[in-house]
## 1
Amino acid sequence: MAIKQFEAESKRLLEMMINSIYSQREIFLRELISNASDAIDKIYYKALSDDQLVFNKEDYYIKVAVDKANRTLTISDTGIGMTKEDLESNLGVIAKSGSLAFKKENELKDGHNIIGQFGVGFYSAFMVADVVTVISKPLGSDQAHKWESEGAEGYTIEPCEKDSVGTEIILKIKENTEDDQYDEYLEEYRLKAIIKKYSDFIRYPIKMDMKEQRPKEGSENEFEDVLEEQTVNSMVPIWRKNKSELTPEDYDNFYVEKRYGFDKPLKHIHISADGAVVYNAILFIPENTPFDYYTKEYEKGLELYSNGVLIMNKCADLLPDYFSFVKGMVDSEDLSLNISREMLQHDRQLTLIAKNIKSKIKSQLQSLLKEEREKYEKFYKSFGRQLKFGVYSDYGMNKDVLQDLLLFYSSKEKKLVTLEEYVSRMPEDQKYIYYASGDSIERIEKLPQTEMVADKGYEILYFTDDIDEFAIKMIMAYKEKEFKSVSSGDLGIESDANENQTETEESDNKELFDYMKNALADKVKSVKASKRLKTHPVCLSTEGELTIEMEKILKAMPN
Ligand code: ADP
Ligand code: MG
């Protein structure tokens, strides 16, 4: 029988794949099980539109079996199977996904569970196997075929016998070498653990024959090993489970499995709402800013499921812009599967869920701030800017939600503080919340304008982000204390120097001031004697609402 070559580019790709795409070998099992699950799903979707085809859920399962003596691991399914052509095109061409084509042909949009799309998962089998044999009998045909390959060299296909429709993937597990261990993939308990870790929510049973110790018949203290077929996956998705059954690792794994991000989430929020609106949600606050987060390309949204079936990958209506960093999913029984995007926008249920989620996120961030300050600061470093944008946008409509989540650097504490902390420390005679703007903490510290306020013993908030001042203008006042820039004309501080002194200084030096004003021509409005300087000879100050920093930003903005 002639060996067919993989397509040229496939050969190189296969070598790369096997050696580098996956950092962990054990995921080969996840990939093969996902394919098996996809194959069963395909029958399920076909049955939806084909009256001749009945889908009895009990008849569909995945089986994982080992044969230690022959070093084989077999993953079989009762799915749709593959024809000879399927075997050639789906397994003979790398990066070709039959599952993606299936979704397109059947116009399945978001409402399906089919996982495959990249057409590379299957080849991960070669990370642990010398030989991969696929025996498959497609739905609606009597002829089965056997596909076999030893890796990059190519594959063979021949007709063969198989009783039932479905696919069997047989892996000849590699021998242990000095550096690499493969025997573990022939150990039932290890395989079961891998399945639990990655494939626990696969909706079809994954069965294994597990060795169990049983008392010997007729004897009370003698035991024997018996093989017992078990379903090893729980099938129930994580969000339907009780919080008390779940560990932090379960959530972390879910985050990775769903590819919400490449980092580890900073915090998870598991909601099982049972009141006016019924839904389950698992939300995550990521640790790191996604690379495209502060760009137009970034798309916010949560996955939306109806009764365990995905309806939408990124439902934007579930998150306000200022919480756009949140990742996760929502499952509600009350949403219709066939609901369109337009209808979703007006769905009362969805609006309620979104409102509910918003307040949950807020309270979780608040408790993170109170109870795990360090973690909160990490979060704030990644997403604080988004919160400040949130305060500023929509004419400050959301300031009440957000103002207590803001942090600013404090001149006194030399670290980030909340507005609440600032106000609670204010001396009785202090009227305003003072702030100073600049490029960096070091530069603000050198500003002559800060001197007078600092000398009074008042705390100053340092604004180093260009959005800071705009956000604060929207808040206007916190706990009835207004914000005041240290460079504004009237600082509201009773000066020790008396009024007359500055007045005489001004009249005595009238010529000098006039000269300076002329020299600076249209750069300044006036030159005055100042009461607020101590060690610095001059400073700039503004009249009216805008500070110098804000004017700079406004000037830099495109019209
Ligand atoms: P993907 O799953 O991303 O499509 P894979 O490399 O995992 O890519 O699989 C390639 C294709 O082979 C699948 O799209 C599917 O058409 C086919 N396939 C793989 N495993 C099976 C199986 N157990 N039953 C039926 N078809 C399968
Ligand atoms: Mg796959």
Note: The first strand starts at residue 62 and ends at 67.
## 2
Amino acid sequence: MDALEDLCQEASEAAAKLGSAIASGGYIRIVSHNDVDGICSGTIAIQAVRRQGGSAHLSFSDHVYEGDLASLLSSGPELIVFCDMGSDLLGGLRKSGRPYLVLDHHHTGETDDRLVNPSTMGIDGTSEVSASGVTYLVARELNPDNVELSPIALCGAFGDMQGLTGANEMIASEAESEGLVERREELRLIGRVDRPMEYSICYSTLPFIKGLSGNQMAAAKFLRDIGVEVEAKTSISELDDEMERVLIRELAEKMVREDASTPEAERLFGRSLRLLDGPSPTIEDAVDYVESCSALGEYSTALAYLVGSPGSGDEVERLRLRYKEKIFEGVGTFESAKRMENLDYIDLDGWDEYVGKLCGIYANAGFSGRLRPVFGLSKREDSVKVSGRTNPELVRKGLDLGSALSEAARTVGGQGGGHSVAAGAKVPLGAEGDFLESLDRVVGNQLGGVVDE
Ligand code: C5P
């Protein structure tokens, strides 16, 4: 059996456990990560339970610690399901003696017959399958009609910056054969089907186009300067092929001039999906709307949007514009970034939910040297939240932010982890200085001196 078949087999065993919990009539407690992939996973899980006639309670969190388990289990769910998190909670869950499922894709060395995690069978959970993909595989084993949820699984994958390889490719093919998505190679800016071009350029934050994102006048001038003559309301999808090619080339050249990372510039154009029966015309729009809701803590709006509830489209558009204004304001903090030997860090107090996104922009759009990871720190009541971001070029040179943050946080009594390009940590308040010193050393060791001056 190949690894993907193994994954489907484990999903099928998990589906059987979920199915019998639903059949026994109790309620299913679902706890999911609060980023795009987590929101999509949670949405798939709750839809799957409800479609089987079960009842479920879904909540979102940025992290669950072992100490939180007792309260999550106190109301006596028939089954607790963790999505996009929980691989580090297996010890605590086993100790609790209560039934659980963990549907995750973060790298783990743990094995457990109630865990479905691609990394346990050698599948790369960073690039080939998201937690939404894992949850979808369980949902579709529970009931084949849940193939209808496949676009939500793909939204989770794109939200975690994954492409159409491995299990994602399989899910895209299923969605395609059901007539739910259509593959396209195109300029991947939001609003490209249903918004004016200026809007697409100005509100794009993935990629973030330095000098144009957040500046509608600059976006309009850019379009005039490159000779893309258009009516005020023309969308990108209305351009003829030649004009679209000019736009792609000029945008890419602008990004390269601004020192964006190669993968960030490559994000402009490529394989994408149109959603034929989805809440928005493109997968980039869906990801962007869910991300806006996520940052603003408007999880139920994201859920309503993903399942196509009437009226949710106007609401997510309003949230998108609010979120983007906040991002553009946050980019202003980059001027205060500080430089250590092997990394940059930014004091992002008060930016909490935006820290990861802002660091992603800083690391990729050309705000730092290209060979330099960045960490954002934001104080909470009794701890400091840390987010680290880098670009794939540095990962290829040996950087793994997940293990770097885990190791550095441990030296000061904190906890950290995540993926090689995007990871986070929580460290005790007051320990930031020692933590950064340790992190700088660990990053330096991983990279062996390739960091930009
Ligand atoms: O919070 P942030 O978006 O920066 O997290 C990036 C990644 O790091 C996520 O996948 C998250 O699950 C992981 N993380 C972690 N431990 C933490 C914080 C984040 O494993 N304390």
Note: Residues 3-23 form the longest helix (21 residues).
## 3
Amino acid sequence: KSGFIAIIGRPNVGKSTFMNRVIGQKIAIMSDKAQTTRNKIQGVLTEDDSQIVFIDTPGIHKPKHKLGDFMMKIAENSLNEVDAILFMINAEEGYGRGDQFIIERLQHVKQPVYLIINKIDQVEPDALLPLIQQYNKMYEFEEIVPISALEGNNVDHLLELLKTKL
Ligand code: GDP
Ligand code: MG
């Protein structure tokens, strides 16, 4: 089994942290500053029964200038080349205009989109259900998976899920 998976989401939701945990190397650049991941950086997770290529996209977000516009096109194009998309959000921050913009872009996408609710180590368990209900109204997600990329909670479960769908 093999496939390509893109990770999208607002800056600082934890995309690079997730990549690094999964691939086990510091391949993506991590920073608190927005937009430090400038290129499509790919990591390959190879196991006995599967191979998954992860693409850490530059943030798809509202462009403020021409370069942002151009980078957004690259990011959008890469979405059409993958088998599945992980749309990562920050459980701490909840829904915002950045997410709204991404969900609008996803309307044209045919691939399965997984909503990954990251940083669950930062919120009370009670806070998750309202968040899930809110996002569920906006898009038909393939699955909704809460994780902590930093601490590793539920990351193995997510990988198993992705493998079964490849
Ligand atoms: P990116 O911009 O989406 O690639 O986000 P990064 O991976 O660079 O993460 C941004 C910040 O969030 C960093 O300080 C990370 O350490 C932190 N972070 C990422 N995942 C988690 C998580 O699951 N829990 C917590 N508490 N912090 C996280
Ligand atoms: Mg990053």
Note: Residues 28-39 have pLDDT under 50 and may be disordered.
## 4
Amino acid sequence: MSRLFNFCAGPAALPEVVLKRAQEEMLDWQGRGLSVMEMSHRSDEFVSIAEQAEADLRELLKIPANYKVLFMQGGASSQFAMVPLNLGGKGGSANYIYTGIWGKKAIAEGKRYLSSHLAASAEDNGLTAVPRQEAIQLSADATYLHYTSNETIGGLEFDYIPETSVPLVCDMSSDILSAPIDISRFGVIYAGAQKNIGPAGLTLVIVREDLLDQAKPEMPTMFSYKTFAENGSMYNTPPTFAWYLSGLVFDWLKKDIGGLDKMAEINQRKAQKLYAAIDDNDFYANPIAPINRSIMNVPFTLADSTLDKVFLQEAEKAGFLNLAGHRSVGGMRASIYNAVPEAAVDALIDFMTEFAKTRG
Ligand code: PMP
């Protein structure tokens, strides 16, 4: 068996020790004679797995007691509708900071349920820098302010948490768990699992308890945060295996990595050296303002774009998978989430240097 270096933006690389542990436990979980996939979600076994995962996540992110953690489905894309449905019961308007493609989708979907207002935009700088705090202008009727802390396609990441007088809602799909964060600054945080949390199929929502009573009355039961909060995310059958595997990832972050401070240190090191390799070589370029360069997703272009295909082919031959940029923007992108080892980044830098030398 040889596992290659995987730079996929999502579903993304998982820690090898997690996959091995899941493999060991696959047929017979802790001597109970069945797989986690075959357990009733209401069994003592699965409830213990679910509770441990939540406890570990709470410890990692230091989630205050007045926040609920919800294990939902539908991906982050469903949250584009669930947020206005859950918070917009009293009307008002959803305010947005626009910094890229995912935020744009959130705005387009949200408009169907609540009026919307663009509080700040990175459009005028070509989506290369995050609007500064002073530029954020809430509407008088703002119900909440939504932003995307890390735009996965553009590789544009907030370097600060916006200050606001209304609840702050954040799509943290591609940078949650990459570094410590002050949860108490937020009303709602949501994230698709398939990057830094676990496998696809699970959507994590962290919501402040006082926001659970603001839903629109016509709300479908299964889209309601309150339904999930009141039923321990088990109103219906949850994605049990994805929940279990995410728990193994949280355990890895705690025990093998040593927590989010440590994870952030490693992530910074990985990103800094990759950006340095891009900046130091005229053959490669990244357009993002240095302060807003994503530590998780590193897009880059080649000086000669006719070589894009060759670059990707040779990279794959050399064992580097999924380096193509998003289909909407082209170019290259290396997603270097928590589970992508530093050795993978080092090897990629060597490959890029060699490619530029021979083809550039
Ligand atoms: N928001 C961000 C920041 C993302 O990166 C993605 C997925 N790449 C999404 C939302 C959509 O997530 P999902 O596929 O889970 O709906």
Note: The chain has a mean pLDDT of 97.
